Amino acid sequence: MAPNRGLANRDDLYIHEIDRTPEYEEFIRKLTAFHEERGTSFEPEPRLPTMNGHVNVDLLKLYKAVLEKGGYDEMNKVQKTWSSLAAELGMHHTDSKGIGQLSFQLKQDFYRYLAAYWVKDQSGKEPPPKEILEQQSCASKFGPVLTRTVENFKKFLSSGRSGVETPTREERQGEGTPASGDRASGRLREAPPRRVPFQPETGPSRQPRQTSSHHSTPTAMAMNTNHHANTPHSQHPNHHLTQHHNPNNPLHLIQAQQAAVRGASGAFTPTNPENGSRLSEMVDPRSPISVPIRPVSTPANNPEFAKRQRQLRMAANQDTQLPIRTAIPGGGFEGPNIYMRCLQALRSGIPEEQSFALNHLVKISFERGDKYKFESFLGLAEGLIEKALEIGNLFYHVEWQVAYFNDPVPENSDIAFLDGLNGTGDILERIAKLSPKPVLDHMQSAEFSDRLLRITEAVLTIRNMVMLVENAVYMAEVYPLRDLLCIILRLPNLEMLVEIKHFALDIAEQLTPWLSLDSGDPLYQTLLSQLDSSDRGTILTSLRAISRISMNLDATNRMQNVPAAVLQNIMNWILLNDEELVDACLDFLYQYLAVVANVESALKAVNMEHVTTHLIRLLGHGSKRIKEDRILEPERIAPATEEVAPLPPDLQEKLTHTDEPLRCHQWLQSVFEETPGSQITQIAIWHAYQNAFGALVNGPRPALGAAEFIRTVSAVYETARASVIRRQRPDQTDIFIINGIRARRLPIHPETKEEYSPCQWMVAKGPYSKKCGLFFLGGEKMWEHVLTAHLGITIGEGGKIKDREIHASCDWEGCTKYAKPSRMKLSELTRHTKTHFPSQKRLLGDGSDSLAKRQRKSYVVPAKTMSLTWEQTIVTRDERNPKVEQAAGIPLSAALVLCNIARNVVKTESEEQLLKKHEMGGEGGGWNERLFRPVMPRLYEVLTENKALATYITTLLQLVQDD
Question: How many domains are contained in the chain?
Fold first, then answer.
């Protein structure tokens, strides 16, 4: 497949993920039961490498997708179907090599885990045996799976594969234990098998009858070489390392017969058939018989297991001399793959071999960490731990050794022996008794550096492997690892040890969720001691490791006996501007303050009033003010009306002294506007014009006639067109209209385009109430109008007004402040009336009004909105309901810590003592009153403005108020 260029830059690609629905859980349960009954291995969530990282395969999606395409056998008939299926499922790659490997592994996962289930589920018959299905590779050309049987499988091999000497892909080592090849998948290269070139006979065709016994011809030497090559003693030493053969497989039988004839010599030369012995043709070599072997933990293949058995027997009878059993060469492992090569090299104790092994183990554990498991390689965990324990001899006069006894190690035993079955409870006391060696931090010998490097690589391998959950669960039961962590973390404070100590803390962080540690546990005490460090990384990892103790277990992490100095340090760290450190401290406090006894200790160790204040401050960590306009009523278009607004007094006076047709132009622009789809009757617009200027017909500037007026309307507005609405019935009159214009709600100034405001002063009250209705431009004109026309105030020279006491009321429509007449100062009433007037004109740099620059449509009634402002902190989306936002981060942690304080502080002895002081006349209230009463306004503010934290603050306020 050609590279899919640009695929990695796309953000809209669907990424494969598992949908953990009830249907999926039921499907996995059925598959697990099916494979357990069948006796085959099953991985519920196999991982595949994609361009977006490793993804877990949803086997239900894969099964349904294959069924839609006709099944496994139908998909194998067409090329590149598995590549397209991977893309459909959300598994993408940027190059042809990557997509090829991805599609093959996807096909392999279906073949291993779903093919047999598919046969039984779809056809209702028993699937082929695992020997000809799961134990074979999906890349084999063994025909369809649905119709495969043992008989046709054997016939297919014997008919189509007989005489083939070159090992095929199916006979090579499986993917789980690679011997060479793909670097991208973390496999290490191995030398290919030697190929023997054909060497033709160079001697004469016939040899003389008499040949000297002291001088051998090349042909005779070749025969002698071949004879020795066929002897059992000259077989290749790695012959026993080949893969296990199936006795029912004819291909393996043919290859075994050819190997028996040829031997394993790399210098094989064909013999001369004329001089060859005929006796060899009568020999029928016996075919090798082998059975599948699975590694089990026995003294034959696990030295650590044998070591435990010897120690148990020696403890039972010190005088008994155990016989040494000779190990069977080549037994107990599948083949010479790189994994077993590294394991055996690590066990050997040879520095060069261990360097080779540890170098590759670090690489394998990093690149293949998702499949590299301790339970699959017996003795690997013990070997790495024993290698890491050698660090004690570099800095102390001690050689740590792991002893496996049924009973705990006696107190008077050797200080160097660690209890491998129950853990060494006094490991910290033993470390304190050790005498250190004089080691220079910046100057070491080559041997010292090499030993420290190998030890660091062993610890790094453990660290990489425990990142896998299965390995972390496995190593949680290995007690020597806990002793090793205590030993490493208690080493001297040297720069050369910073790296290995960080590796040890990473291991502890992955193990503690699966450990239940009490206050006296050496590992718990060691992790607490790391909180006195000045290294930020050490503090962070230690806090996380302690906070996660027994997280995945039913036991409660009580976190008792925390020193007061550690608590004070944590309270100081939450004041820093370091989000990661503050988050780790809050996680620690949440676990610690969930226990009543710990709350009592915190009250005595630190000032809880200051702590509460800072926790309240963290409720707004990273918050931002969000402003949003909510629409109460949407924008709407006012219906058209036949009523035309009268001209304002100033505009009426100005247009009266203006000649036609300019006067008509300005009048139309003032009281009408273009509106596509609107209309007004010609009689209505003509009457409005007559009411405005009809009295000037006989004056010096007479008004226009009807016909000329209609033409002027069309000239002013391009969209205005005079038309007639014809009636269908003869007794109805036709309607003459003008399309494209409508009357303005408020008139505007024809030059500045500023909108006039009506005076809403009520000139008559009661059932026949009436507003003034005159229009004025700006608040100043309106104010002068109200003073003179409605209040009867005379404005003096220079605009001065005498402030005197009057008996009046504010009759503006809808005003209720001065609804009834009363005695007041004129200035007081005028200050109030100005609130009803429009604001003064906002002028631009050129003196024009800003409102004039905005050509607003008067018929559009703006929407009614309400501005909301609130405080928003970090939130996260619910996976099941993405529309729901949930609190997260530091604000959420701070709220949870405050709830623990309010819930448990009332149960402490300090609460009782504080209440007794209240009975004796002291300050009232308990600890909740003292801690939360000063910050109550801030809590209510967060409750009302932070929607994500509202639920948690409500719980906190209930706890405080109930107290």
Answer: 4
